[in-house]
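Sanity check

After download, print the first record. It should look like this:
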Amino acid sequence: MRLIWGGFVLFFLFSPFLKAETLGGGKGGPYIQYNNASLSRFDSEIGGNPLIIGGLGFGWASKKFRIGGGGGGGFLWSGTESAQFGIGYGGMVGEYIIADWLLARMMIGGGGYAVSKIISETDTTLQVKKISSGGFILFHPQIVADIKIGQWASLGFSIGYFLPNIARLHSPSFSIQLMFGRI
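Expected structure tokens:
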């Protein structure tokens, strides 16, 4: 949490040098992200990968840099029926414009997760065994190909690396985003 507040303080200290007053607007929208980390890392009887649905929003800080926030929540994609999984995270996001269509993005934040195995299930009861749960600090660098589909909209495809401080959750990530606003 100190890291997030430190980022906000640094942004406000250096924002006069970014000439943000000459820029206006921002952009934001939803994304769907697939993480290529099998949950079999937690238990060999559990299969499937996390699918995350979330949103991002940015404001212009300079001609080449945007800053904002984002977050998402996820569930198990095509997993075994004997497992339960949940993940949620959020944080600050910075985006550097390399070219009109190419962006470098970094999310710094935190979240939590839980993995459980279903032991038995009836119509009235569900017995689960907790495999792992906890909080994490997250670094998530990405490269984004941003394709304009209108004056105020773009479709983005990204590849990145989901890097929380929980090694079993590390994975390459692939996402699709639909952004609206000043592109």
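If your output differs, re-run the checksum step. Summary of this record's structure: The longest strand covers residues 126-150.
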